[in-house]
Structure formats: structure tokens, C-alpha cells
User: Fold this.
Amino acid sequence: MKFEDLSRYFLRLEATTKRLEMFDILSDAFSKADSRDIAKTVYLMQEELLPPFFNVQLGVADRMVEKAIADAYHVDLKVIKSSNKKTGDLGEVAEKYNGSDKKSSLSVSEVYDKIFDMTRLSGEGSVEAKINVLSSLLRKVSALESKYIIRFVMGKLRLGVGEATIMEALSKAKTGDRKFKPDLERAFNLCSDLGYVANVFYEKGEDGIRRFEVQVMRPIRPALAERLPSAEEIIKKLGKCAVDQKFDGFRAQVHKNGDDVKIFSRNLEEITHFMPEIVAAVKRLNHRSMIFDGEALTYDEDTGTLYAFHITIQRKRKHNIEETSEKFPLRLFVFDMMLLDGRDLMNEPYIKRRELIDKTFGGDAAISKSRFIITDDSKELTKFFDETIGAGLEGVVAKKLDAPYSAGARNFNWIKIKRSYKSQLSDTIDVVILGYFKGRGMRADFGVGAVLGGVYNDKRDVFETITKVGSGFSEAQFKELRKMLDDVKVTHKPARVDSMIEPDIWTEPRYVITVKADEITRSPMHTCGMKDEVGYALRFPRAVSFVRTDKRPEDSNTTKDIVEMFNNQKKVELKD
Ligand code: ATP
Assistant:
């Protein structure tokens, strides 16, 4: 496919406010791609060069782009700068000074590869070199293409396309039918790389995608836990189950291939360099290849106790990792295993995987395993829960004995019960910011008075509104929020947002915050779970976290979670 054609699809995507239309545009675009350029097309639609775990960085700043545009179109740099100040969109500036409506003949792959070349430049002279690569590319393309190239390199494409919609569109484009979406989803959950999945689908067809397996060094999308309010409900749901200690640290998915070790976070960034002591311990394990899942925490060797979460989290902010790792060493508590010596364990029953964990780990200070019991008795479960809480841990996770590893899914194969669940709606809710309302009175100074929050409806692949949050942020946080949100503001409601409320400023759904509320209520104003014109809303919401860097928008709570929490809340009320 020509990059000019892709740019025309970008133009259409940008203009749409409806998800279904977005789906049609995407499937049309994907039907024009072949196996050589489908992966790159998908990455560009997702506004990335590669998935986050590859850690490729473009490292492009405003100044560099301004210079590249000035060089490419022989315009005075001052003119470009003032034009940027006026429009706030260097994409538009490039389009204006390019001025050419002649199609370029560059393909999607050629443009992608040129942009990718910039990631290989580092060190002395790299700024100049990047400017040269970009300006020479800008010289070869039409006005429309230059707009999207610039927006892409600046991370400001803002098409708002979701993974679920991409997969549905790929299925339709390749086979004329949407029915292969679940197969694509399964493959995506196993490797977290949608471009790669698209390539396998285009090259090897439906069969290839059905045979897709986990691969060492490609992160599996983590299994997630559902929640229930009491031990009785857990036993009613699972019957005999394993009940594991729940640790409050960093989720870490470890991959080992010979002497190579990689560790991935919950949101699939590579965090290997934060955990040298765990990497060393994994290298000592006598297994050729492994993938396992656990939680890493700082552990006091002298007293045998775990440090609080805030000590563990310091690790990510510290520069001197080696020193920190001596003072506050991490210990990884392994709670699942997905591959061992080339054997895929994803579909083995949990109890089998757990037996393998018990055989494989032990005796190393840096790698340990969670303690668990097996029970079908709610009293025994409650006793274990109380003991675990008494030992300073966060709670327990009950696990279905015969369940496979549910990559990328939140379901009742794992059920968490935390310390705070006992009181009514004491659990927090993660919402995505969809826009903001300008402040009044004192808040006018901050620029943001409240944010519009939504949750993810994974069935519809849209974000539905549930609340307006105006308290819980400090003055400094409001100001910071304003900057962050203005950086992702859009001119109209994004196609994947379902809202009856119109904020002053719409933003791309990007940032997740954690809120606490007194209650979930029914409301005609919010679209979350809306049926017969009544949705769900939060009563007295307040933010209890600033923007969560460990969660993507689709990792916010889902509409389904909210309905469940609402129902559980009613049960608690009845009992009281
Ligand atoms: P979630 O990760 O489910 O979106 P969250 O980030 O708020 O929600 P929690 O609700 O605290 O996290 O619970 C799930 C997390 O608990 C897992 O992602 C994992 O990191 C952690 N965890 C700790 N111990 C265990 C265990 N034994 N089994 C499974 N998960 C565990």
C-alpha cells in the first residue's frame, strides 16, 4: 500500500465520531495491505513503531521537527516556530509549507523504515542526523503525507483506534468475515504484539493463527483476577480451590532462554534492568527455557519481613539500581508458570502448573513462591485470609484448580479478596479520563475543575462515562493534570467514547486514575452499563491516585466490574 493511501485513511479516521464507521475504514484499509506491509500498517494505526516491550524510542523534540520542516521546505525557522505557536500542531505546519498535492510514490514500508532509522541514531551528532533523515523524507512526500508523518513522529496522531476494533477489522479484511476475531485475540494475548499477529494471519491464514503458541521473550498478556466480597461466595463459585497469598509489589513476568533473561511489567514494559538480583537468580536456575509470573517485593533478610509497597516502588525511580538492590533487595514470589523447557503449560490445569512451581523453585533468596492452601471450606479460607492479613499481606487470591492460564483475561479463574473488602464499596475503581471541565472560582487558576471519568466496556470496545471527579487532587496535581490533558486534547468526542455529557475539553482516552466513592448508584446521566436509559454512576467520588503509569486505558475497571460491584454492594446491604 502507498503511504498516500494510508494517509487518506488517517484523514477519514480522524473525522469520524462513530466506532462502526471506524471499523469500516479500518477493514477497508487492511484489505489494501499485503503480508509485507500489514504489520507496519497496524503499528502505524496503533501510533507506535513497535509494541512498548521493544523499548524503541524516537526521541524527537519540537525543536528538531521545526528544523526538519524548515530545512525540507526552505522556510525560515522563525516562520515555522511562529506558525507552530499559532496552531500548536506541527503536522498542520508541515502540510501548509509542503504545499504539494502531488502523490508521492513511497510505500507504507518505505516511510515506516525511514522513520525507524531514526531510532538507531544515538550519541553525538544524532540530533543533526535525525533532522536530516526527517527532512529528506519530508521532501519526498505530499502535503497530506507530511502532516501525518510529523504527527506520528511527535506521538500526536490521536486516531483513537482500539486493539479490539483492529482485530475485528483484520478478520473482515482478510476473510470477508469477522468471525476470526477470537482467534486473533487469543494469539494477541499470547504475544502482546498485534503487528506480528497480523503478519502471521496474512502469511499463514486462519490455520496459522489457530496454531499460534507462546514464545519465549514475547510477553504474555497477564491473567487478571475478578473480585468477590466473601469467602462463602468464593467457595460457592469455585468449590474446592487453591488459595494463594496476595503480595502487594510489582507484577513481574520472567522469560528465560538459556542465559538470556527478560522481565516484563504488568503493562508489558521491559523492566529487566530494574531487577538485577532477580535476573542473576533466574540465570542460576537449571532450565533451558522458562516463562513464569510473580510479584516482586523488597524483603528484609534480617527480620524475614516484607517492606511496605512505597519502598518497593522506589526501585523504579532510583538511578542507582545496583546500590538500591543491595540495600533493599527484591524477592520474587512466583505464583504461576506458563512454559518450562520448551513445554507450553498454558492449557495445563492450574494445579499441575502449581506442582511444577513447587518442584522448580526454592532455596534461593531472590526467588521464592507464594504459600497456599487447598480447601472447599469457607471457614478455612477465612482463617487463612486472616492469618495472611495478620502477617501484613494484602489479601488472598483464590484459584480454580482445573483452569488454564487465562492470558489477557479477567475472569473467575482467579478471585481476589483484599483486606478492605469487608466494608461497603471500600474497593477503589480505576477510571479513564475522557475530558475535563474548566475550573470556576479558585479552580480557574488551575485550568481544570473536574475530569470526566469512564470505564471500559470490553464487549463494545468503547469507554462509557461513570463519574465527574473534582476532588482528591492537590493544587500542584491539578496544574500538572492540565498540562498532561492539554497534550492529549482532541477537537471532538473520540469515536470510542460513549457519553451524554459534554466536557469543556475532550481528551484522547489515555490516562487512568484511581478513585474511591461512597457508593455505586443508578443514573440517567451516565452511559456506563446503560439499559432502558439508566446507567451506573459513582456517588461522592474522589481521586486517590494521580495518573497511573502502570495502567493502559483498557486496563481501567470494566462496565462488567461495575455491575458486579453494584450487585455485591446490594448483598452487603441486605446482610447488614
Ligand atoms: P488488576 O491487576 O487486577 O487490574 P490491581 O492492579 O488493582 O488490579 P489488585 O486488585 O491488587 O491489582 O490484584 C491483582 C494483582 O495482584 C495481580 O495483577 C498481581 O500483580 C497481584 N498478585 C499478588 N499476589 C498474587 C498471587 N498470588 N496470584 C495472583 N496475583 C497476585
